[in-house]
Design goal:
The chain is an alpha/beta fold and 296 residues long. Helix content is 42%, strand content 23%. It folds into 3 domains: 70 residues, Orthogonal Bundle (Arc Repressor Mutant, subunit A); 104 residues, 3-Layer(aba) Sandwich (D-Maltodextrin-Binding Protein, domain 2); 108 residues, Periplasmic binding protein-like II (D-Maltodextrin-Binding Protein, domain 2), CATH 3.40.190. The longest helix is centred in the N-terminal third of the chain and has 18 residues. The N and C termini lie far apart (49 Å).
């Protein structure tokens, strides 16, 4: 089994087409097809079903694609690992979520660099769900996530206040705090399932309890959250202050009243298995930062 075969298969699975994969990889279509066929013979299984709409990975193909993604990510990191080893520095891969306050993260990261000069943090931005998978597969040694994931070891490190971001001209912008009652009749965008410790149904139930009829739009937050909010024509976005200033800089941000469902965004440091003494010390430094942040 060759790395080239795995790359060819992964690209075909991603694009669902041998011809498009061949173009993307700058190889001929017959050559790519032969390599995939050779891989199927070696593994003694069918990796794709050929349909009128293109390639559809079989269950074995989907499992192989997920595994290859991990392998290829590790391969891409080889130059970084070798370079740091030459300088006798250890690389620790840490996942960070969208909206992590820089004013919290930068002092914490600086403390780690000062205390462990032989260590270099390699930061990788990702959603909570992405990081959970990457920590489990070993792509990340540590992940900063917004769920107390039961399959991982975790330690709470940060609480940020949530609020409602509203566009210019909104009558809500004059308020100093907001609850779900003030969202009555509005279309509100909030985090999708798996992104926060609060489930979608909790937001709906909390709004119903206050007699508020809210039209909810649940999305995974990303670099395009601001664009999604604007094109969807929402009246507000449940977000931290940091995320609002980053993605919707011209919108006003009003904090949610304390005690409401979803009024706080929690962050945990997570890891997969028993930590080395070095990583244990790193986790302790991160956990020693301010846990209740007025920054976000």
């Amino acid at each position: 089994m060759e790395l080239r075969q795995l790359k060819y298969f992964a690209k075909a699975a991603e694009l669902r087409s041998v011809s498009r994969a061949a173009v993307a990889l700058h190889v001929t279509q017959p050559s790519l097809s032969r390599q995939i066929a050779a891989l199927e013979r070696e593994l003694d299984c069918t990796l794709f079903d050929r349909t009128a709409r293109g390639l559809a990975p079989t269950p074995q193909g989907r499992a192989l694609k997920a595994h290859i993604d991990v392998v290829l990510t590790q391969v891409r990191r080889i130059p970084e690992v070798v370079s740091e080893a030459a300088e006798e520095r250890e690389v620790v891969n840490v996942g960070v979520p969208q909206g992590l306050p820089h004013a919290w993260a930068e002092p914490v990261m600086s403390s780690i660099e000062e205390r462990f000069p032989h260590l270099r943090l390699s930061l990788h931005e990702g959603t909570t769900e992405d990081q959970r998978q990457q920590v489990q597969t070993g792509l990340l040694e540590l992940g900063l996530i917004h769920l107390d994931a039961p399959e991982l070891h975790t330690k709470h490190v940060l609480t940020q206040r949530m609020g409602l971001a509203v566009p210019p001209g909104s009558t809500v912008a004059r308020l100093t705090e907001v609850g779900y009652r003030e969202m009555d009749g509005m279309t509100i965008m909030a985090h999708a399932a798996g992104e926060l410790a609060v489930e979608q149904s909790d937001f709906i139930t909390a709004a119903d309890a206050e007699g508020a009829h809210v039209r909810w739009i649940f999305r995974r937050f990303s670099a395009y959250s601001g664009l999604i909010a604007r094109t969807a024509g929402v009246d507000g976005v449940l977000s931290t202050r940091t995320s609002t200033y980053r993605h919707l800089p011209d919108w006003a941000w009003i904090p949610l009243r304390s005690g409401l469902t979803g009024a706080a965004l929690h962050t945990w440091i997570s890891w997969r298995a028993e930590l080395s003494p070095l990583l244990t010390d790193v986790v302790d430094v991160i956990a020693a930062g301010p846990t209740d942040s007025a920054l976000g």
